[in-house]
Protein backbone atom coordinates (compact mmCIF):
# COMPACT_ATOMS: atom_id res chain seq x y z
CA UNK A 1 0.00 0.00 0.00
CA UNK A 2 1.56 3.26 -1.18
CA UNK A 3 -0.51 5.44 1.13
CA UNK A 4 -2.08 7.31 -1.79
CA UNK A 5 -5.83 6.80 -1.98
CA UNK A 6 -7.89 7.28 -5.11
CA UNK A 7 -11.65 7.12 -5.41
CA UNK A 8 -13.59 5.76 -7.10
CA UNK A 9 -11.75 2.69 -8.37
CA UNK A 10 -14.03 2.32 -11.36
CA UNK A 11 -16.28 4.76 -13.14
CA UNK A 12 -18.54 4.20 -16.13
CA UNK A 13 -20.20 7.20 -17.68
CA UNK A 14 -21.70 8.38 -20.95
CA UNK A 15 -20.19 10.69 -23.52
CA UNK A 16 -20.75 14.34 -22.79
CA UNK A 17 -20.87 13.84 -19.05
CA UNK A 18 -18.63 15.27 -16.34
CA UNK A 19 -16.86 13.30 -13.61
CA UNK A 20 -14.63 14.07 -10.65
CA UNK A 21 -11.77 11.86 -9.54
CA UNK A 22 -10.44 12.24 -6.04
CA UNK A 23 -6.98 11.69 -4.60
CA UNK A 24 -5.68 11.76 -1.04
CA UNK A 25 -1.88 11.97 -0.97
CA UNK A 26 0.39 10.31 1.55
CA UNK A 27 0.45 12.04 4.89
CA UNK A 28 2.83 14.98 4.72
CA UNK A 29 3.33 14.96 0.94
CA UNK A 30 2.78 18.39 -0.53
CA UNK A 31 3.09 17.49 -4.22
CA UNK A 32 0.31 15.78 -6.13
CA UNK A 33 0.60 14.62 -9.72
CA UNK A 34 -2.04 13.34 -12.10
CA UNK A 35 -1.26 10.90 -14.90
CA UNK A 36 -3.34 9.29 -17.60
CA UNK A 37 -2.53 5.78 -18.76
CA UNK A 38 -4.00 4.54 -22.01
CA UNK A 39 -2.97 1.78 -24.38
CA UNK A 40 -2.04 4.09 -27.23
CA UNK A 41 -0.52 7.00 -25.29
CA UNK A 42 1.19 5.22 -22.42
CA UNK A 43 1.66 7.14 -19.18
CA UNK A 44 1.06 10.82 -19.79
CA UNK A 45 1.67 13.51 -17.21
CA UNK A 46 -1.34 15.77 -16.85
CA UNK A 47 -0.74 18.25 -14.06
CA UNK A 48 1.08 18.85 -10.78
CA UNK A 49 0.09 20.77 -7.67
CA UNK A 50 2.32 21.73 -4.81
CA UNK A 51 0.78 22.88 -1.56
CA UNK A 52 -2.34 24.10 -3.29
CA UNK A 53 -0.71 25.79 -6.25
CA UNK A 54 -0.41 24.56 -9.79
CA UNK A 55 3.27 23.87 -10.54
CA UNK A 56 3.46 22.14 -13.87
CA UNK A 57 1.16 21.27 -16.73
CA UNK A 58 1.57 18.46 -19.17
CA UNK A 59 -0.70 17.10 -21.86
CA UNK A 60 -3.90 18.11 -20.13
CA UNK A 61 -6.89 18.90 -22.29
CA UNK A 62 -8.83 22.12 -21.78
CA UNK A 63 -11.85 19.99 -20.87
CA UNK A 64 -9.90 18.74 -17.87
CA UNK A 65 -9.09 20.68 -14.75
CA UNK A 66 -7.71 19.97 -11.33
CA UNK A 67 -7.27 21.56 -7.96
CA UNK A 68 -5.60 20.86 -4.66
CA UNK A 69 -7.44 21.79 -1.51
CA UNK A 70 -6.08 23.16 1.80
CA UNK A 71 -6.12 19.66 3.29
CA UNK A 72 -3.90 18.66 0.30
CA UNK A 73 -6.33 16.28 -1.31
CA UNK A 74 -6.78 16.81 -5.01
CA UNK A 75 -9.56 16.43 -7.53
CA UNK A 76 -9.35 15.95 -11.28
CA UNK A 77 -12.42 17.12 -13.16
CA UNK A 78 -13.11 15.73 -16.60
CA UNK A 79 -15.91 17.29 -18.62
CA UNK A 80 -17.59 16.82 -22.01
CA UNK A 81 -16.27 13.30 -21.91
CA UNK A 82 -15.40 11.50 -25.13
CA UNK A 83 -14.85 7.83 -25.84
CA UNK A 84 -11.13 8.51 -26.13
CA UNK A 85 -10.97 9.70 -22.53
CA UNK A 86 -11.41 6.12 -21.37
CA UNK A 87 -8.22 5.34 -19.49
CA UNK A 88 -6.66 4.65 -16.14
CA UNK A 89 -6.06 7.85 -14.21
CA UNK A 90 -3.36 7.80 -11.59
CA UNK A 91 -2.61 10.17 -8.81
CA UNK A 92 0.83 10.26 -7.23
CA UNK A 93 2.35 12.20 -4.38
CA UNK A 94 5.85 12.99 -3.21
CA UNK A 95 7.38 14.96 -0.36
CA UNK A 96 10.07 16.63 -2.44
CA UNK A 97 11.90 16.88 -5.72
CA UNK A 98 14.64 14.40 -4.91
CA UNK A 99 12.30 11.64 -3.93
CA UNK A 100 10.29 9.11 -5.79
CA UNK A 101 6.59 9.56 -6.35
CA UNK A 102 4.14 7.15 -4.78
CA UNK A 103 1.21 6.12 -6.90
CA UNK A 104 -2.35 5.32 -6.02
CA UNK A 105 -4.17 2.32 -7.45
CA UNK A 106 -5.81 4.44 -10.11
CA UNK A 107 -9.33 5.15 -11.28
CA UNK A 108 -10.43 3.25 -14.34
CA UNK A 109 -12.71 5.50 -16.36
CA UNK A 110 -14.85 3.99 -19.07
CA UNK A 111 -16.79 6.35 -21.31
CA UNK A 112 -19.59 4.67 -23.26
CA UNK B 1 12.41 18.59 -22.89
CA UNK B 2 13.14 15.37 -21.08
CA UNK B 3 12.38 11.97 -22.57
CA UNK B 4 12.81 8.28 -21.89
CA UNK B 5 13.10 5.43 -24.35
CA UNK B 6 12.47 1.79 -23.59
CA UNK B 7 13.41 0.12 -26.84
CA UNK B 8 11.86 -3.25 -26.08
CA UNK B 9 8.09 -3.64 -25.76
CA UNK B 10 8.51 -7.22 -24.60
CA UNK B 11 11.28 -9.15 -22.87
CA UNK B 12 11.07 -12.88 -22.28
CA UNK B 13 13.48 -14.70 -20.00
CA UNK B 14 13.59 -18.15 -18.44
CA UNK B 15 13.22 -18.46 -14.70
CA UNK B 16 16.59 -18.46 -13.00
CA UNK B 17 18.30 -16.60 -15.82
CA UNK B 18 19.51 -13.02 -15.50
CA UNK B 19 17.26 -10.33 -16.88
CA UNK B 20 17.87 -6.87 -18.31
CA UNK B 21 15.28 -4.26 -19.17
CA UNK B 22 16.76 -1.39 -21.13
CA UNK B 23 16.23 2.33 -20.69
CA UNK B 24 17.87 5.39 -22.20
CA UNK B 25 17.07 8.96 -21.31
CA UNK B 26 17.48 12.53 -22.45
CA UNK B 27 17.44 15.44 -20.03
CA UNK B 28 19.20 18.74 -19.49
CA UNK B 29 21.62 18.54 -16.61
CA UNK B 30 22.03 15.67 -14.20
CA UNK B 31 19.15 13.22 -14.32
CA UNK B 32 17.06 11.80 -11.55
CA UNK B 33 16.17 8.27 -12.72
CA UNK B 34 13.56 5.83 -11.47
CA UNK B 35 12.20 2.38 -12.17
CA UNK B 36 8.62 1.41 -11.42
CA UNK B 37 6.76 -1.89 -11.82
CA UNK B 38 3.07 -2.32 -12.58
CA UNK B 39 1.20 -5.54 -11.98
CA UNK B 40 -2.15 -6.12 -13.73
CA UNK B 41 -4.91 -3.81 -12.49
CA UNK B 42 -2.57 -2.21 -9.97
CA UNK B 43 -0.83 1.09 -9.55
CA UNK B 44 2.85 1.69 -10.14
CA UNK B 45 5.21 0.50 -7.45
CA UNK B 46 8.56 2.16 -6.91
CA UNK B 47 11.57 -0.15 -7.39
CA UNK B 48 14.66 2.01 -7.23
CA UNK B 49 16.15 5.39 -8.03
CA UNK B 50 19.40 7.07 -8.99
CA UNK B 51 19.96 10.61 -7.81
CA UNK B 52 23.70 10.80 -7.31
CA UNK B 53 26.57 8.66 -6.08
CA UNK B 54 27.32 5.05 -6.91
CA UNK B 55 26.36 4.16 -10.47
CA UNK B 56 24.97 0.80 -9.36
CA UNK B 57 21.83 1.19 -7.30
CA UNK B 58 19.99 -1.60 -5.54
CA UNK B 59 16.27 -1.68 -5.06
CA UNK B 60 13.34 -3.79 -4.04
CA UNK B 61 12.83 -7.50 -4.81
CA UNK B 62 16.50 -8.04 -5.77
CA UNK B 63 16.49 -5.59 -8.65
CA UNK B 64 19.35 -3.27 -9.42
CA UNK B 65 20.11 -0.71 -12.08
CA UNK B 66 23.27 0.72 -13.53
CA UNK B 67 23.56 4.38 -14.40
CA UNK B 68 25.82 5.05 -17.38
CA UNK B 69 26.23 8.74 -18.04
CA UNK B 70 28.20 8.41 -21.27
CA UNK B 71 25.57 6.13 -22.78
CA UNK B 72 22.67 7.97 -21.10
CA UNK B 73 21.33 4.63 -19.96
CA UNK B 74 19.78 3.23 -16.82
CA UNK B 75 19.19 -0.46 -17.44
CA UNK B 76 17.29 -2.56 -14.90
CA UNK B 77 18.82 -5.89 -13.98
CA UNK B 78 18.26 -8.91 -11.81
CA UNK B 79 20.70 -11.81 -11.49
CA UNK B 80 18.05 -14.54 -11.31
CA UNK B 81 14.52 -13.99 -12.61
CA UNK B 82 11.41 -15.30 -10.91
CA UNK B 83 8.05 -16.06 -12.52
CA UNK B 84 6.56 -13.54 -10.10
CA UNK B 85 8.71 -10.81 -11.68
CA UNK B 86 6.46 -10.92 -14.73
CA UNK B 87 4.95 -7.45 -14.99
CA UNK B 88 5.13 -4.14 -16.84
CA UNK B 89 8.24 -2.11 -16.08
CA UNK B 90 8.56 1.62 -16.52
CA UNK B 91 11.66 3.76 -16.53
CA UNK B 92 11.21 7.42 -15.64
CA UNK B 93 13.33 10.56 -15.55
CA UNK B 94 12.97 13.81 -13.74
CA UNK B 95 15.10 16.84 -14.57
CA UNK B 96 17.13 18.42 -11.78
CA UNK B 97 15.19 21.63 -11.74
CA UNK B 98 12.16 23.06 -13.43
CA UNK B 99 10.51 19.95 -14.78
CA UNK B 100 9.48 18.33 -11.54
CA UNK B 101 7.16 15.78 -13.03
CA UNK B 102 8.28 12.30 -13.93
CA UNK B 103 8.45 11.52 -17.62
CA UNK B 104 7.88 7.84 -18.27
CA UNK B 105 9.00 5.50 -20.96
CA UNK B 106 6.50 3.43 -22.90
CA UNK B 107 7.00 0.42 -20.67
CA UNK B 108 8.45 -3.04 -21.17
CA UNK B 109 6.41 -6.15 -20.55
CA UNK B 110 8.62 -8.68 -18.82
CA UNK B 111 7.57 -12.32 -19.00
CA UNK B 112 9.51 -14.88 -16.99
CA UNK B 113 8.91 -18.36 -18.29
CA UNK B 114 8.89 -21.29 -15.86
Key phrases:
heterodimer; A: 112 residues; mainly beta; seven-stranded mixed sheet; four-stranded antiparallel sheet; globular; B: 114 residues; six-stranded mixed sheet; 51% strand
The shape of chain A, in one word, is globular
Q: Which percent bin holds the helix content of chain A?
A: under 10%
Give the rounded overall mean pLDDT of chain B. 92
Strand content of chain B: over 45%
Describe this structure in words.
- The complex is a heterodimer of chains A (112) and B (114).
- Chain A has no helices and eleven strands.
- Chain A is an all-beta fold.
- In chain A, the strands form two sheets. In chain A, strands 2, 4, 5, 6, 9, 10 and 11 form a seven-stranded mixed sheet that branches. In chain A, strands 1-3-8-7 form a four-stranded antiparallel sheet, with no helix packed on it.
- In chain A, strand 9 (87-94) and strand 10 form a beta hairpin.
- The mean pLDDT of chain A is 93.
- Chain B is an all-beta fold and 114 residues long.
- Chain B contains no helices and twelve strands.
- At the A-B interface, strand 4, strand 5 and strand 10 of A face strand 5, strand 6 and strand 11 of B.
